C-alpha cells in the first residue's frame, strides 16, 4: 500500500519495535496499512490475551439484548446456581464484573498461577478476600471475567466459545478457535482468546460503526454507548474504564481501547473514524513505562498522521 509521508514515518516507527508483530490501520472503512512484521500472518489467529475481556463485554451486551440475562443490575450468584455467601458478595452484579468493581481480591498478576492451578476457577475467584463492597473501586482481575463468562454460559446453555463464534465470529466472518478451559470445562473468560489481526480490526470496525458491519446488526448501539460511560479508573494507567473498555485520548481525541498482556491492542477512535489493531509477542511484558508506553506513543502518532 502506498503511504503518505506521515504514515510512513509511523510505519517505520512500528517496524522498529521488536516486540510488535502486526499492525492494521483502518480509517473510514478503508484499510490504510496492514502488515505482519514478524510472527504469524495477518489472517492467522493470535493470542490476544486480555483483549478477551472486551470480547466478553461485547457478548454480555448481546446476551442482554437476546434476553439471556436481564441486565447489568442482575445479581451474579443466582446465575451460577450458587448458594448465597451471606456477605457483600451476594450483591455482586453483572455490571460490577464488567467494570472490574466486583469487590473480591484479584486473581491476576502474582496471584494468577495459584488461581489457574486450583481445582475450580470460579469458586476460587469468588472466595478471594473482599477488598471493598461490590460497585466500589477498580480491582484488575481476570477471575471476575471468568465468573461472568461462566454465568453467561450457564444462562445461555452455550459454552463461552460457542457464544463467541456464533454471536461475534460468524456475523463478522472471523474464526475464533477454542482456547484454554478450566477443570470444569468452562472456557476462560477474560484471557487467551485467539483472533487474527484482521479479525480484530473487523471487530473494531463493527464497534466504530455502532454495532453494525456490512449492513448486519451484531451488537445493540445502546450497549456500546453504555460500555463507554466511565465507571472506574485504572490505578495503573490512570485511564478511565467502562464496561470492558479503557477510555483515554490519543492525538487529543477521545478513544476507547482493549488491552492485553504483552502489547495486544485494539483502539477505536470515533472522531477520526479510526481503528488500530496491534498484536505483539504474548510472552513478553508490556509495562506502562516500557513497551506499552511505546505503543501509546505509536497510536498517538497514528492518530495525528491520518
UniProtKB/TrEMBL annotation:
Residue ranges of domain Beta-lactamase-related in the record: 23-285
GO molecular function ontology, one term from the record: hydrolase activity
Domain of life: Bacteria
Signal sequence segment: none
Pfam family, one: Beta-lactamase
Keywords: Hydrolase
SUPFAM superfamilies, A to Z: beta-lactamase/transpeptidase-like
InterPro entries attached to this UniProt entry: Beta-lactam-related, Beta-lactam/transpept-like, Diverse_Enzym_Activities
Name of the protein in question: Serine hydrolase
